[in-house]
Specification:
This protein is mostly helical. About 75% of the residues lie in helices and about 0% in strands. It has one domain. Helix 3 (about 65-85) packs across helix 4 and helix 4 (about 90-125) packs across helix 5. The longest helix has about 35 residues, at about 90-125. The two termini are about 35 Å apart.
């Protein structure tokens, strides 16, 4: 029972840090201004780790690789906690791969929430200050679908298609994670 409590607390804390780092990565990738309450919150939560890491981890093609790498490290740390508590048995390579798989899962969940909040705000309060932020965050993910699917009767169905694709991605990620846990890679 104590192991489950430790996993719950560490999973919550490390998951929160991972989501904040991913939000920072997505905001910089989408060129979303940090001059809003969400941006200020993300900056205040992640600056303590990202600013020192940027001295050693350069950006790549305008992407904030320090935030992305730190998010991966948070997920690997959680996997190591699982291993130390005897909840998981794995090799160093499969730990790294599980970190990437879990990071992809967290990023998919974050995109899912961003799109849902963006859609709800566009219906309920399209001129709200946060509506702009979520619209800008969701735009890069919705753009390919908006090019393929035209609005029907003035209603944009691209978020529904994106959410369906994200559900499929989550199924694939769950299968990958299961296969890494069942048969760890040994070198």
């Amino acid at each position: 029972m104590l192991a489950q409590i430790v996993l719950l607390i560490s999973g919550t804390v490390l998951g929160f840090i991972t989501l904040a780092l991913l939000a920072r990565f997505f905001m910089q990738w989408g060129r979303v201004s940090f001059r809003n309450p969400i941006g200020q919150f993300v900056i205040s939560i992640t600056d303590w780790a990202v600013m020192p890491a940027r001295r050693f981890i350069p950006g790549l093609f305008g992407l904030d690789m320090a935030s992305l790498l730190l998010a991966w490290v948070a997920q690997v740390l959680y996997i190591l906690i699982e291993i130390s508590l005897g909840m998981l048995v794995s090799t160093p390579i499969s730990i790294s791969l599980l970190g990437f798989v879990d990071l992809a899962r967290m990023a998919t969940y974050l995109i899912f929430v961003i799109v849902i909040v963006s859609v709800v705000l566009s219906w309920v309060s399209p001129r709200a200050p946060m509506a702009y932020v979520f619209n800008e965050l969701s735009r890069p993910f919705l753009a390919p679908f908006r090019r393929l699917i035209r609005p029907l009767g003035g209603i944009d169905l691209s978020p529904l298609v994106l959410l369906l694709v994200l559900q499929i991605v989550l199924l694939v990620i769950a299968h990958l994670r299961r296969s890494l846990l069942v048969s760890p890679i040994v070198f």
